Amino acid sequence: MITTRALTKSFGSFTAVNKISLEIRQGEIYGFLGPNGSGKSTTIRMLCGILEPTSGSGVVLGYDLIREAEKIKRKIGYMSQKFSLYDDLTVYENLDFYAGLYGIAYRERKKRIGEMIEMALLKGRQNELAANLSSGWKQRLALGCAIISRPAILFLDEPTSGVSPTARRAFFKIIQQLAHENTTIMVTTHFMDEAERCYRIAFISEGSLIADDTPENLKNEVIKGVLAEVVHPDGLFMIDDLEKLPYVKECSNHGPALHVLLESPEAVKALNDYTGVEAKIIRPSLEDVFVYLAKKHRRRVS
Amino acid sequence: MGRILAILKKEFLQMGRDRLTLGMVFALPLFQLLLFGYAIQTEVKHIPTAVFDQSLSAESRDMLEAFSASGYFDVYHAAAGYTEITHLIDSGRVKVGIIFPPDFSQRLKQGDTAAVQVLVDASDSMSSNTAIATANAIGLLKSQQIFIQKTHQAGIPYDIRVRPWYNPDGITAYYMVPAILGIIVTMTMVMMTAAAIVRERERGTLEQLMVTPIKSYELMLGKIIPYIGLGYLQITVALLVGALIFQVPIRGSLLELYGLTLFFITASLGIGILISNIAKNQMQAFQMSFFVLLPSIMLSGFLFPREAMPLVIQYLSNIIPLTYYLVIIRGIVLKGIGFSYLVPQVVALIIFSVVLIAWSIIKFKKKIV
Ligand SMILES: Nc1ncnc2c1ncn2[C@@H]1O[C@H](COP(=O)(O)OP(=O)(O)OP(=O)(O)O)[C@@H](O)[C@H]1O
Ligand SMILES: [Mg+2]
Questions:
Q1: Ligand 1, residues A17, A33, A40, A208: which to mutate, most atoms within 8 A of Cβ?
Q2: Which residues pair with B164 in a beta bridge?
Q3: Structural domains of chain A, count
Q4: Does the beta carbon of A41 sit less than 6 angstroms from any atom of ligand 1?
């Protein structure tokens, strides 16, 4: 569905996206993760044909990203990071506007808009101005506008930022349903629970793709060594000292706990002696993987 | 087509919910007209003048010389007949016509009163007042001159008769109201469309539009068309104010006025939409509109007659749509002339509209910069 080869975008001398090559298959939920400013939005904009790549190439739905951008636009849906519907139009009018832009036949329109309102759980709010909706509702309306044309690919740029956990869950459920109906979805997120539900995850840092695999594989194969969890009252102040120990590869904090990456299982005892508390061997979470990857990447760059 | 309709519908809905826009459409004509309705008169020089000299004598040349030497009249056209003078004034190419009768020199030599007819286009009261006063003064001066030369003479040697056309009473409002109407319309149209694209860019809604299959021309036309209706609404309000409060007579065809106004509206919308495509934000769009509107008001012949301006400025005023529209609306409202006299102006406005709108369509890219 989507293939890119060394896709690159520079703003002046700054490279926001650096030679990204990826492949997304039909019906996949493809998670796109990375720290702020790592180039997620920039990549998505290029794939939507609204940002000219500096170099590299890409094919979306069989169309060339650079030469056939307008053909791509007929078959994709996009939800930008910023809420971008018309505040001074009602829920119904916003949907009707996008139905018109995608040339949905008049006979079909009412039915389709009804479906969207149902899907977005917006029943009874059709005549409410978009400005008056709370962010969870707004996000679902934006999704409705993005999928009213029944796109083959859906690009979602942080669709669930600033939304309550309940609304987030409701939103992701809809996405999973869409994927189930064979829509290909590329979604950026900072939430690990959402990342876990993706079929594949790409992780980018400072414009470069540094991992691209299933969540399972990422958790099992990326981190080399043994991960131990240490709960200590002074944990936060121990990170620097711990990292200087010969058998510790890395150390980071996760809430009240420290996650310490050790060379081998034998090092746990030495760690226990050093900290005076019992360390617990844990299976790396996605978050561990990403922290690890980001650190590794930054070290390699500098 | 369907996509243009979608944009149109959306624009109308948004327009209807925007109180400021609606307020501007109705309040602006009222305020502006009352404010500028009585404008200050300024001295005018270099009034374009045509001469029809049937006498072709040393005396007539001497008289004409006096007119030229005054600095108020630029005699640049020698007409072959009375009808040509009429035509020149009707078309607005000259504002004053001087006619010497065939017996001008003969009567003068005989010691009779020699008549010089001075026709003045008084629809422009500023220049016509000057023309009338100056012509009278010249007549008196020349007469005195001859009195001194031939003290035995009985009658006044010259008699200059002035006929103010179109606006015999010299009422300023007649001249100003149609012009203010033009300014109000161009101001509203430019300012509103200048915000049209850039507002969506700022709000982020443009990015969403860019990923839809909409085409550049569909978006531009969809943005422009709703404002044409608004422009007509505003003109109607302004004309009513002009007719009811200032009693401005509308001598020409109202239908023709409405018809020809279309091209002025589209030219103004073209300026606005182009600004909207160039500006980075609404503030910039607003400044650019101001930058365009100010010269329009100063140079179009609204405040000061173009004839009074340096040549360079006159050329500059040729690239201002309002310049042409002022000729059209003053012509139809005050002179009662029709389309046949206004072809060059209408053509100019059509060219403006096409070029500006086409430029915007080409300029708009469905890409983020
Ligand atoms: N139009 C632009 N001009 C210049 N720099 C830009 C432009 N757009 C993005 N950038 C820069 O490119 C980098 C990547 O931005 P991008 O928005 O793609 O990051 P992101 O991964 O989406 O971040 P976030 O998680 O905060 O949304 C940032 O440093 C940003 O400042
Ligand atoms: Mg982003």
A1: A40
A2: B120
A3: 2
A4: yes
Q: What would the pLDDT profile of B323-346 be if each residue is shown by its tens digit?
A: 999 999 999 988 888 888 899 999
ipTM: 0.85
CA distance B128 to B151: 34
The pLDDT tens digits of the residues spanning A108-152 come to 999 999 999 998 888 889 999 999 998 889 999 999 999 999 999
* Contact between A80 and B208 using a beta-carbon 8 Å cutoff: yes
The ligand minimizing its distance to the Cα of A36 is 1
Identify the CATH number of the domain in which residue A166 sits. 3.40.50.300
Does one domain contain both A50 and A124?
A: yes
Q: Supply the pLDDT for residue B241.
A: 86
B115: pLDDT strictly greater than 90: no
Instruction: Look at residue B41 in the predicted model and tell me its pLDDT.
Output: 42
Residues of A whose CB is below 8 A from B18: 88
Q: How far is CA B342 from CA A14, A53, B84, B142, B333, in A?
A: 57, 51, 17, 38, 13
Residues facing A24 on adjacent strands = A2
- Whose CA is closest to atom 22 on ligand 1? A41
Contacts of B213 in chain A (CB under 8 A): 70, 73-74, 101-103
The per-residue pLDDT for A155 is 96
Question: Would you say residue B151 has pLDDT above 80?
Answer: no
A139 CB within 6 A, ligand 1: no
Q: What CATH number is associated with residue B59?
A: 3.40.1710.10
Ligand 1 centre to CA of A195 (Å) is 21
Residue of B5, B17, B366 lying closest to A50 (CB–CB): B366
Q: Which helix (H) or strand (E) holds A32?
A: strand A29-33
Domain of residue B330 covers: 171-363
Kindly report each contact of residues B130-136 with a partner whose C-beta sits within 8 Å and lies 24 or more positions away, as own/partner: B130/B43, B130/B44, B130/B45, B130/B47, B130/B72, B131/B44, B131/B47, B131/B72, B131/B73, B131/B95, B131/B96, B131/B162, B132/B162, B132/B164, B134/B70, B134/B72, B134/B73, B135/B67, B135/B96, B135/B160, B135/B162, B136/B160, B136/B162
Q: What pLDDT score does A277 carry?
A: 82
Best of B203, B212, B223, B364 to disrupt the A interface (most A CBs within 10 Å) is: B212
Q: Say if residue B125's pLDDT is above 80.
A: no
Residue A279: domain span: 224-283
Asked if residue B156 has pLDDT above 80, the reply is: no
**Which residues are close to ligand 2, an ion, with C-beta < 5 A?**
A 40-41, 81
Low-confidence ranges of chain A (pLDDT < 70): none
Q: Which ligand is nearest to the CA of A202?
A: 1
Residue B5 in any domain: the answer is: no
Q: What predicted TM-score, i.e. pTM, was given to this entire model? A: 0.78
Q: Do B6 and A78 touch (CB under 8 A)?
A: no
Q: How does pLDDT run across B269-318, given as a tens digit for each residue? A: 999 999 999 999 999 999 999 999 988 888 888 777 788 888 888 888 89
Query: How far is the alpha carbon of B209 from chain A, nearest alpha carbon, in Å?
Result: 9
Does residue B40 register a pLDDT over 50?
A: no
